[in-house]
Amino acid sequence: MADSLADFTETTFEHDGTAHQVYRRGDGPAVIVMAEIPGITPKVAAFARRVVDAGFTVFMPVLFGTPGADVSPLTGVKVISGACISKEFAAFATKRTAPVTLWLRALAADAHASCGGPGVGAVGMCFTGGFALGMMVDERMLAPVLSQPSLPIGPMRSSKRSLQLAPDDLTRVKERAADGVCVLGLRFTGDFLSPGDRFARLREELGDAFIGVEIDSSKGNEFGIPKMAHSVLTEHFVDEPDHPTYKALEQVLAFFRDKLIVAAPG
Question: What percent of the chain is predicted at pLDDT more than 90?
């Protein structure tokens, strides 16, 4: 069933000649929620509301797809076909930061100015998963979350290990990691769209600043998670406290609280 998103405020944000719709809701420090293919589905919106309920202001940019539309195979194919050829996303580039990241950094800066707090958080999912890492170039990004990061696309080992960052941006990300900014990553172990090689590279480059959560989806796993499971926080999320996806969600929210909410003086 489609989601009207009626409880969100719809605005438009423009930067350097590029404009996208943005859905906003909540109070507190800003968190940018970037949807997976095919867009802001009901389950992506449900995740965003959980972030709002945890004490944050969510900004959901419309980077592709129809906001609120439910998932369908036809829609997914149409959206991913368009996204793959879009210059904004550079879906196949291994040593280039996606151009849309510049727009997202500007959105984060605007959100921080609006909401205050020590900085901004972000969640990227699948196609947008690595964009949160690219946003870390800006000092306002204090809590980047990479949920099943899937770009760049390609079967070669160079693609699977790529972080889709230009060399200068990777250097800056590593500097910020060395200064104490952590990166949280989520994936299922059997997910070929978000390969383990990419998490291995993140550990190599960022060391202890990368917190990798890899949920067992191998055959016969304790929770019956299918081998093809992909979307940790949305399509394959199970709303049961003992389930590993629920624990992953709790870890994401705790990460935001730890990095973005300033404790009142005691």
Answer: 86
State residue 73's pLDDT score. 67
Q: Please check whether residue 129 is in contact with residue 149, taking contact to mean a CB–CB distance below 8 angstroms.
A: yes
Distance CA 181, CA 84 (A): 30
Q: From start to end of the chain, where are the E strands?
A: 9-15, 18-26, 30-34, 57-61, 120-125, 141-147, 183-188, 210-215
What does residue 151 show for φ and ψ, rounded to 5 degrees? -100, 145
Distance CA 21, CA 151 (A): 23
Q: DSSP code of 261?
A: P
Residue 102, both tokens: 């510049």
Measured CA to CA in angstroms, residue 203 lies from 177, 198, 199, 211 at distances of: 11, 9, 6, 8
CATH at 78:
3.40.50.1820
Q: Tell me the pLDDT tens digit for each residue of 64-123.
A: 999 999 887 666 667 777 777 788 888 788 889 999 999 999 999 999 999 999 999 999
Please tell me whether residue 53 adopts helix, strand or coil conformation: helix
Beta-carbon-side half-sphere exposure of residue 15 (alpha carbons within 13 Å):
18
SS3 229: coil
- Whole-number average pLDDT of the chain: 94
Give per-residue pLDDT as tens, 4-29.
Answer: 999 999 999 999 999 999 999 999 99
Domain that holds residue 145: 9-260
Domains in the chain, number: 1
pTM strictly above 0.90: yes
- Domain-located, residue 116: yes
Stretch 124-149: mean pLDDT, rounded?
97
Kindly tell me the burial class for residue 2, based on how many C-beta atoms sit within 10 Å of its own C-beta (0-12, 13-18, 19 or more). exposed
